[in-house]
Each structure stands twice: as structure tokens, then as C-alpha cells.
Amino acid sequence: MEDITTALGTTVPGPAIEQLLFTREWLTGERATAHDTLTEQADYTYRAAYALSGGGELHPDAHSAAVTNLLHNVTPGIVAFALHHLRPLLPDLTDEQWTRIDAAAIALDLRVCEDLSGASIVEETAGPQLAHAPVDWGRGAEPSR
Fold it and tell me: What's the N-to-C CA distance of the chain in angstroms?
């Protein structure tokens, strides 16, 4: 992906933009794990709401209820995923501001943040895990499993 220039004249590197893409073919390592977590949540919440609404034959609005339930349940995780990847786009934020962004991401979806930080696959860590991405985001720079 190419770098882009914003309306303010700043340049956003292509690799930083790639980190915000949420399609399966762009995801590896911890990002793929977080995607799978969100996919599982979406599948479960859709199926549960669809079944509890009587299914399509018994209740024609079951699909609408299921989609509403799905969106309600996975949107916080998608926002947490995006917050995790903001650092390359906002390099001038202070550590205090990143702490607040980390806290917001964790409050939205702890499991997705654990997936993105690698905490869900590591039994014991050497210190606190940050919800946001590291600064250096060259293609292939993120840890793989």
C-alpha cells in the first residue's frame, strides 16, 4: 500500500494504513488471532439471536434481530482493534495519552487486546502489556506465531 498525504499535508505511511485493514488476507500472527476472536463472537451472537427470535420461517424479522445483536456485540472489539493500531498515525501523543487509549481499548474488549498483545498465547509475561501497537510497523515486522 502506498503512503498517502492528508488534507493537512502530513504523510501517513502505507504500512500504518495496512495495520488498520481488517480483511483476513492482511492479517497474520496476533492480528489474525484477534480477527478470529471477533469472528467467533459474531458467529455466536448472530446464531443465538436468530434462534431466540424463532428463525426466519417462524419470525421474518429474526435475521434483522440477529444482525442487530451481532453489531452490538462485536463493534467494541473492532474499535479496540483500531485503537490498538493508532500509534503510527498519532506519533506525537504522550505516554499518558497512550495509557488512556490503552485503557479505553481494554475496557471495550479485553480479549481482543489480549490477542493483539500476545497475552492470550503467552502464559506469563515479563511486564504489563500495552493495548496499542509498537511504533515500528514495517511489513512483516509484527511477531508471528
Answer: 24
Per-residue pLDDT of the chain (145 residues; tens, 9 = 90+): 677 676 777 776 776 666 666 566 667 778 788 888 888 988 888 888 888 887 766 677 888 888 888 899 999 998 998 888 787 778 788 989 999 999 999 999 999 888 888 876 654 444 445 555 444 434 444 433 3
Kindly calculate the radius of gyration of the chain based on its CA atoms and give it in whole angstroms: 18
Q: What share of the chain is helix, strand, coil (3-state, %, to 5)?
A: 55, 5, 40
pTM of the predicted model over 0.70: no
Read out DSSP for 96-114? Answer: HHHHHHHHHHHHH-HHHHH
Output phi, psi for 12, to 5 deg.
Answer: -105, 120
- In this structure, the chain runs to a length of 145
Q: How far apart are CA 91 and CA 75, in angstroms?
A: 25
